[in-house]
Amino acid sequence: MSEKSYSPIAVDLEKDRKYAWCTCSHSSNQPFCDGSHRAHNKPPSLGFSVEEDKKAYLCTCKKTGNPPYCDGSHKN
Ligand code: FES
């Protein structure tokens, strides 16, 4: 297999906190944005928040159809 394999990262999200999910893959703070998209001229992060404290599996392959959440697309 030549492609790097990805899997989601489990994170504990806090109600009403603002998060920035990395969309470009260059962040070294996956699954969150660290600003690397600027140096790589890539699209910015996706901002999101949750309505209650919860654990979520955030996508790292960036192929999910339901960003920022893993939808199983990394297996394809
Ligand atoms: S890591 Fe599962 S869809 Fe991207």
UniProtKB/TrEMBL annotation:
Leader sequence residues: none
Keyword Cell cycle: no
Protein's name in the database: CDGSH iron-sulfur domain-containing protein
InterPro entries: CISD, FeS-contain_CDGSH-typ, MitoNEET_CISD
Domain of life assignment: Bacteria
Organism in which the protein naturally occurs: Maribacter algicola
Domain Iron-binding zinc finger CDGSH type span(s) in chain numbering: 6-43, 47-76
Keywords of the record: 2Fe-2S, Iron, Iron-sulfur, Metal-binding
GO molecular function: 2 iron, 2 sulfur cluster binding; metal ion binding
Stored Pfam families: zf-CDGSH
